[in-house]
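Sorry, explain these tokens?

___
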Amino acid sequence: SSALKSGEKRNDLFHFEAGPSLYSGLSQDRSPNPLKHIYQMIEEEPEWITYDEWGAFLPEAPEGYQLSIGAENFEKILLQYGGQSAVDDWNMLAS
């Protein structure tokens, strides 16, 4: 944790991606997010900014899209850019 606090660059540290925070959150005390666990272990609590929309630019959607967070809205994007089979695959993974 001293390297993290001092700002030294360490190539052997694990790098977290942003994805899990969208689904499991960081602001609640009992989050399943592994990054939240790290903050709890080093006894740091950043100021969290919560949001209810997100957007992305993907090869399938180069113009980008923005939608409210939630499975129903995400399924609309999947249907538009990936078709019904993408929605079916997602639902199978999510169940």
In short: The chain is about 45% helix and 15% strand. The chain has a mean pLDDT of 78.
